[in-house]
Amino acid sequence: MSPGRCAAVLNEIDANVVALQEVESRPGDEHDALALLARETGSRAIAGATLVREDTHFGNALLTRLPLQAVRHHDLSVPGREPRAALDVDFEADGYRVQMIATHLGLRPAERRAQVRRLLPRFDVRRSDLVVLAGDLNEWFLWGRPLRMLHRIFQRTPHVRSWPARAPLLSLDRIWVHPRHALVRLTVHRSALTRTASDHLPLIAEVAMQ
User: Fold this and answer.
1) Is the Cβ–Cβ distance between 32 and 57 less than 8 Å?
2) How does 80-100 read in b/e, with b if 16+ C-beta sit within 10 Å?
């Protein structure tokens, strides 16, 4: 991944909040990829590292231009598998309280089921005006149990093919919104840069409280 190309793609999209997965950063280092993305997009970076090795962090992240209210980190790791986590953030947007959870689920079905069970109690639909789940859910099957479990919180949401970037076949990346009517549009972003910036196409949700 080239941080410069990724920053250019994010500037094409110009979103107020961006959920990222598999971000490598080196806090305090001039080659810190997350800091570069934040700087180039005029955003604040919120790190949610799942792996920390010496001076290098790796994992989830959010970039935001919205006022930040709270940040929570949830460990979703399953023994014997790659560490996974969720970044749970509250924003203020035009007077509304927005909760956004960004995550990257595991590769095995049983792993994803366990991770979704741990995520479900984290969604605060009673106190939040808007709740958003965004990330790479790694669910290959549209009828997979993890997706059906998430329907306890979220109504059915369109699925858009985003992987692999050069010829998308699967809807591994998801953005789900509660209440459902707040989701105006869900698309992937295609440009000359997207095929080389990442192996996933960026997924874009236009959200509006009505």
Assistant:
1) no
2) eeeebbbbbbbbebeeebbbb
**Within a domain: 209:** no
Condensed to tens digits (0 to 9), the pLDDT of residues 17-27 reads 999 999 988 77
Cis ω for the linkage preceding 164 (within 30 of 0): yes
Query: Is residue 73 a part of any domain in this protein?
Result: yes
Q: What is the dihedral of CA 25, 35, 173, 48, to 10 degrees?
A: 60
pTM: 0.94
Greatest Cα pair distance, the chain, in angstroms, is 47
Distance (Å, whole) CA 69 – CA 29: 27
Q: Answer whether residue 54 is part of any domain.
A: yes
CATH number at residue 137: 3.60.10.10
What are 100-142's pLDDT values in tens digits? 999 999 999 999 999 999 999 999 999 999 999 999 999 988 8
